[in-house]
Amino acid sequence: MWFQVIPAATAALVLAGPAAGGMAAPLDTTQQREAAVDVRPFQLSDEGAWIGEAICYGPHRDGQRPGGPGPAADQILEDLRLMRPRWRLLRTYGAAETAETILATIRADSLGMKVLLGAWIEPERGDGDQGAPDTEKTDANERECAAAIRLANAYPDVVIAVCVGNETQVSWSGNRCSPATLIARIRQVRAAVTVPVSTADDFAYWREPASREVARELDFITLHAHPLWNGRSLDEGLPWLDARLAEVRDAHPGATLALGEVGWATDRGTEGNQGRLIAGRTDEASQTEFYRRYRAWVADARLASFWFEAFDENWKGSDDPHEVEKHWGLFRADRSPKPALAVE
C-alpha cells in the first residue's frame, strides 16, 4: 500500500487452496485455466514449518522516504529482529533501493526469513503522462526489473517469489499503466528468474474479464482486499473478505490466488477518500480486535496472508498527522508495539 502515489490501500499474501504443508495444490485438470506459462508452485513451507502468516514491510522511518534518505543497515536489522519472532515471510514493494540490504541482512544474520520481492512499475511511453517524463519512468522500470532479476538469482535462499507491479491496472490507480507494459515487464522478469512471478492488484480488477490477459502470464494472482477502505465495519470485515476471494476464484478458476494485503488502520483524517469511504472505527482497540479475528481466520483456512503492515510510515500521504496512510502498522513509527501485538 504505497499511498504516496495511489489513492487506496495496498501489502499480505494469501494462497487460495494450498495443500497441507504450504505447497500450492495441483490444479484440477478439468478446471485448468488457459495459461501462457508452465505454472511454478509457490512454496509456503520452510524446513517443515508453514510460513504463510506473513507481513508487509516498508522500511522507511521518520525523515526517510523512497527516492530520498533511506534506512541504515543497523535499522533494517533492528526491524527484522522485531518481525522475526512473529513472521518468517515478508513482502517488499521495490527492488532498486533498500531491498538488497534487507536480503543480505537476512542471510548474514541467519534469520531464516523469506521474501516476496517487489518490483515497482510505473507508466511508460504510451501509457499517458502521470507527472514525469515517460522516458524517466521507463528507465526507472528497467532499473527495478534488472534489480529484481539480479536479487532473485543472487539470493535464492531468501527470495521465494517476485511481484512485478503493484496496483497498476485497477481503474482508480494513480500509477496505472497499460496491460501491454505490465505484461512486457512480467515476461522480462519471469524469463530471467526461476522463482514464481506474480503481480498485485485490487480485487475489483481481478474479478473483471479484462484481467485474464494479465493473469495468464502469472504463476499466482496477488489480490488486495481491504474491508476498511470498502466501508465495512469490524463485524463485516472477514465475511466481506471471504466474498471477495470467492469472486476472484470464480473469475479465474484453477488459478492460485494470493491475498496481497489486508489490514486495519489505527487513525484517519477526514479529507478525501479516507473521509468518504471509511466507515469503520480506526483506533488501536479496533485494530486489535480485527487482528485477533484475522489470525484465527488465517489459521482455520490455512491460507498464507501478508498483513498490511509491520510499521507505521509517516512519510506517506499528506501533512495531516491523522492521515490514514500513516497508521496501518502493528508497530508505531518509533518501533514501539501497538496493543494488537499482544494477541496470541
**Overall spatial form:** globular
Strands side by side in the biggest sheet: 3-4-5-6-7-8-9-10
* Assembly state of the chains shown: single chain
* Percent range of helical residues: 25-40%
**CATH class descriptor name:** Alpha Beta
> Major beta sheet, specifics?
8 strands, parallel, barrel
Key attributes of the depicted protein:
344 residues; disordered N terminus; single chain; eight-stranded parallel β-barrel; alpha/beta; TIM Barrel; 13% strand
Summarize, please.
The chain has 344 residues and is α/β, with parallel strands linked by helices.
Helices and strands, with pairings:
Blueprint: E1 45-46, E2 49-50, E3 53-56, H1 73-83, E4 89-91, H2 99-108, E5 114-119, H3 134-154, E6 159-166, H4 179-190, E7 197-202, H5 203-206, H6 212-215, E8 221-224, H7 237-251, E9 257-262, H8 272-277, H9 284-301, E10 305-307
Parallel strand pairs: 3-4, 3-10, 4-5, 5-6, 6-7, 7-8, 8-9, 9-10
Antiparallel strand pairs: 1-2
Helix pairs in contact: 1-2, 3-4
What would your notes on this structure say?
With 344 residues, this protein is α/β, with parallel strands linked by helices. The chain has one domain: Glycosidases (TIM Barrel). Helices cover 29% and strands 13% of the residues. It has nine helices and ten strands. It has helices at 73-83, 99-108, 134-154, 179-190, 203-206, 212-215, 237-251, 272-277, 284-301; strands spanning 45-46, 49-50, 53-56, 89-91, 114-119, 159-166, 197-202, 221-224, 257-262, 305-307. An eight-stranded parallel beta barrel has the order 3-4-5-6-7-8-9-10, surrounded by five helices. Strand 1 (45-46) and strand 2 form a beta hairpin. The longest helix is centred in the middle third of the chain and has 21 residues, at 134-154. It is globular. The two termini are 26 Å apart.
